[in-house]
Amino acid sequence: MKPEKAKISAITAILLAVWTISMVFVYSEYQRRRGLEGKDIVSSDVKMDSEERRMYNVYRNGSKVGYRIERTIHGGEFYLATEECVLKMNLAGLSREVYLQSIVAIDTTTYNTRQLQFTIRSGSHMSEFTGSVRSDTLYIEVQNYNLAPKRTGYFIVDKSITFPVGIPFFLSRAGADLVSLMVFDPIVFNEYVLHTERKNRKITIIGDKRRTLLEYELSYGDSDARLWLDPAGGLVRADGYMYFGGGIGNFTIEQTESRDVFLMPVDVAFGNDTLKALAIHPDRTIENPRAVEYARFRLEGIRAAYVDVTSSNQKKLSNTPVEIGIYDHPVLEGDRRDFGIQAALSDTSLTGSSDYIQPADARIIRTAREIVAAYSDTLAMAEAISRWVNENMQKNERITLIRSVDILRERKGGFEEYTKLFTALARSVGIHTQINLGLVCREDGVFRYHSWPSVFTGDVWHDVDPYYGQARADATHITLVRGDFERLVELLRLVNNLSIQVIEYR
Fold first, then answer.
1. CATH fold of 279-505, please?
2. Is the pLDDT reported for residue 296 higher than 80?
3. Rg for the chain (alpha carbons), in Å?
4. Which helix (H) or strand (E) element contains residue 404?
5. What whole-number distance in Å separates Cα of residue 408 and Cα of residue 412?
6. Do the beta carbons of residue 326 and residue 476 sit within 8 Å?
7. Which of 111, 101, 216, 219 is nearest to 158 (CA)?
8. Angle between helices 378-392 and 415-428 in degrees, nearest 10
């Protein structure tokens, strides 16, 4: 067997193994939930009547960025649709592979969705969502990362709600040309009404097979899409597919029979950063944002669960709508303070290395020791490192350097490079350091995605921003995610959905 074919066969075997494990998990989850309203959809003695598997190339704005595997299982009284997708994306200067998996189980007697499961993974970070539908309520359980507690909640929904992967099932069985569905998108964590219209038939060639397809026009919110289904209801092509709520470019998926589907682009062009170019214009301008000591913001298009609750200088004032108060100094109290202490002491990643942060490198250690030689207080050491990074780095948003050792050598880059270098230097001298991912108000009054570090001392986290030369990050820094760059993937669900209202600032 040729090396390339052997590689493809190995990849295929791995994917099949992953899928088998996923199916076992789904079956176990159904068995665990025997107390739910109605009968079980999947039981240990279920008979699978048929299984179909399809492969797709995924394109974004005309360039291949990934692949998708879709499987449907017909088991008599249930229909199971699964989607596994790998996308390669440039997130804040890091070329990352994002893995998405969706599973939906539909009762073929009532046409009601019973179970939902979704996983999003990037590097070592993973977020999981499970849901069950009982009558008009979707009960959910979410875990955003391994150390986070599981959160539960519910939504009042239409009983026919489904995931995006279940849309072809309902369209192919609809008797009318005009159909509206309620869809829950687990990436943006929101439900929306999808309006569809069946259009014309189309003849196309896939591989060496001639296919007759049905075309559908879809609209949801401010976005639209177009799907083509085969006579059996299988998805063949989609323009404007619902990845990330349609907010980060036009995704197209095309069915293929070629094993080359698993071949990924070596890299995604660093000039096409998914997050860096995005801007949010608030309802009013903040004058001199670097001097803001306190600010209160209302965040629309975001759920309260997305706003970090462990940030020492950030208070959640309201859940609906989401309002937060931000200070330029720590204000943590009670349980939140205790949780911050526990997290700092137990999480070894806050002192360790990663693919792009190397605190154990001799050059990093030597530089950091020279910077902090005159200080013994942890906060003073951190402030000295922040000053050094600000004074010795040259701002250049066009430069993208991945590793902190390369940043130390080149001493130029954007906010990601400032944050990576600070983090490596601080950790090299034993300072617990984590990374904030969120938004900051620029001097032009526009909020953009940004990263900055926090250091742990005095039983609280202190935010600093070496990019702006701040020993205390100003109060326009809105933390959405904390931990490390691995969690950047969580920001994708907010793109094009978030708006900011400035309530007050001083």
1. C8orf32 fold (3.10.620)
2. yes
3. 24
4. helix 404-410
5. 8
6. yes
7. 111
8. 140
Cα–Cα distance between 328 and 330 in angstroms, integer? 7
Structure tokens at 462: 């202190």
Contacts of 17 by beta carbon, 8 Å cutoff, 6+ apart: none
End-to-end CA gap in the chain: 69
Q: Nearest CA to 491 among 500, 479, 476, 480?
A: 480
CB 459 within 8 A of CB 442: no
Tell me how far apart the alpha carbons of residues 374 and 384 are, in angstroms, rounded to a whole number. Answer: 9
pLDDT band at 13 (very low <50, low <70, confident <90, very high): very low
Domain ranges of the chain: 3-262, 279-505
Q: 223: helix, coil or strand?
A: strand
Calculate the dihedral angle through the C-alpha atoms of 482, 484, 485, 486, rounding to the nearest 10 degrees.
-100
Kindly state the tokens that stand for 331: 């204000």
C-alpha 27/C-alpha 449 separation (Å) is 40
Q: Is the pLDDT of residue 152 over 50?
A: yes
Mean pLDDT of the residues in the chain: 81
Question: What would the pLDDT profile of 59-102 be if each residue is shown by its tens digit?
Answer: 987 888 899 999 988 877 888 999 999 988 877 666 778 899 99
Question: What is the per-residue pLDDT for 235?
Answer: 92
**In terms of pLDDT, which residue wins out, 493 or 68?**
68
Helices (H), 269-395: 334-346, 362-372, 378-392
When pLDDT is averaged across residues 40-66 and rounded to a whole number, the result is 70
**What is the sign, positive or negative, of the torsion defined by CA atoms of 268, 270, 276, 277?**
negative
Q: Does the structure show a pLDDT above 50 at 474?
A: yes
